[in-house]
Design a protein that fits this description.
This protein is of the alpha/beta class. The protein has two domains: about 10-135 and about 260-310, D-Maltodextrin-Binding Protein, domain 2, CATH 3.40.190; about 140-260 and about 320-350, D-Maltodextrin-Binding Protein, domain 2 (3-Layer(aba) Sandwich), CATH 3.40.190. The protein is about 45% helix and about 15% strand. Strands 7-6-8-5-9 form a five-stranded mixed beta sheet. It has a four-stranded mixed beta sheet with strand order 2-1-3-11, with helices on both faces. Strands 4-12 form a two-stranded antiparallel sheet. Strand 1 (about 45-50), helix 2 and strand 2 (about 75-80) form a beta-alpha-beta unit. The protein is globular and about 60 Å long.
Length: about 350
């Protein structure tokens, strides 16, 4: 492995940790202490710890929820927002970061918080559709003209293709990226695991920058101008093309994966802060038609099918999508691929 690959320096880790702490301290909505008790203005404060690319979604959603709650219940609510790589965010909650609700990139990150005793068993069935109010998928973002002619996963293995992709050790989106590539190779090689590993390794050998989170990877590709292709959340790619329509384009691979971000009440914290009802209402409101349209407008796929179809011009609904059940569920997938010494480490370190 050359020094060009996977820029994980100690300095970068320290900077990333500092950014994480700052995000958890300040959030993006509200300010001051993250205690969820009533503020001096009478508002009830709750904290939503989320993952990197949901910043714009929750900026819009929080505003709508606050207005709804005031109109319907006469209660003022203030939402403090925190963002970072999904895995890192989960670990921060386990280690004591304030969170009344979590809205993370994958089920396993919330299971980590459950296993720490902060979330009650059965959270996956507490809200509709396995507590997944919206979905997404994984696409390729390339520069306009697609000079390297990238159309599918095979093209990412070619010599001379520089890939930007986040790190599965800290980013939930990166785990979805890895599984989408693996599923493609699994079908291509009829389950021959050695050939699958070689194929996926060839992709990761072309990764020149591996950021800690999906938003950082987008910044590296878009703002810093590095790489030929970004393996991206669909919503990140949509937002980039919307902002820079003459500079980027989205490539939908023939096979991807149905990414299901999960939500849950952090029961221990919500009880301590006396905001259980508000926290529950906050997550339930995600399933309303009004919120589902906010979700669609921000590049996520609404879980309500009729509203998803309203956005059919925005999403490629013809993509062949694997699901996490194809990997035996998140626990099995995590244990096989992402634990220390798992297949990702084998490929990354080879």
């Amino acid at each position: 492995m050359t020094q060009k690959k996977f820029l994980h320096t100690a300095k970068a880790k320290k900077i990333g940790a500092a950014i994480m702490i700052a995000a958890l301290t300040l959030g993006t909505t509200g300010c001051g202490s993250q205690s969820a008790s009533a503020e001096g203005n009478g508002a009830i404060k709750i904290t939503n710890v989320s993952y990197d690319p949901t910043r714009e979604l929750y900026e819009a959603y929080n505003k709508a929820f606050v207005e709804y709650y005031k109109d319907e219940k006469g209660i003022d609510v203030e939402v403090v927002q925190s963002h970072g790589g999904s895995g890192g965010q989960a670990r921060s909650v386990v280690e004591g970061a304030e969170a009344d609700v979590v809205t993370l990139a994958l089920e396993h990150d919330i299971t980590l918080i459950e296993e720490a005793g902060l979330i009650e068993e059965g959270w996956l069935s507490e809200f509709d559709r396995d507590s997944s109010p919206y979905t997404s998928t994984i696409v390729f973002l390339v520069r306009k003209g697609n000079e390297k002619n990238i159309n599918d996963w095979d093209d990412l293995t070619k010599e001379g293709v520089d890939i930007i992709n986040p790190d599965p050790k800290s980013s939930g989106g990166a785990c979805w990226n890895f599984l989408a590539a693996w599923h493609y190779a699994d079908l291509k090689f009829n389950g021959d695991e050695e050939k699958i590993k070689d194929f996926v390794k060839a992709i990761y050998d072309n990764v020149t920058v591996m950021d800690s989170g999906a938003r950082g990877a987008t910044t590296t590709f878009v703002e810093n101008g590095q790489g030929d292709v970004l393996i991206a959340w669909e919503n990140e790619a949509i937002a980039t093309v919307k902002e820079y329509p003459d500079e980027y384009e989205i490539i939908s691979p023939s096979i991807s994966i149905l990414a299901q971000p999960s939500v849950a009440i952090v029961d221990e914290n919500a009880k301590k802060d006396g905001v259980e009802d508000v926290a529950r209402d906050y997550l339930e409101y995600l399933y309303t038609d009004s919120a589902q349209r906010i979700i669609g407008e921000n590049g996520y796929r609404p879980s309500t099918e009729s509203i998803l179809n309203e956005f059919s011009d925005k999403f490629d609904l013809s993509m062949d999508l694997a699901t996490i059940s194809d990997f035996g569920g998140w626990n099995a997938a995590y244990d096989k691929f992402f634990v220390d010494g798992g297949i990702f480490d084998e490929i990354h370190g080879a």
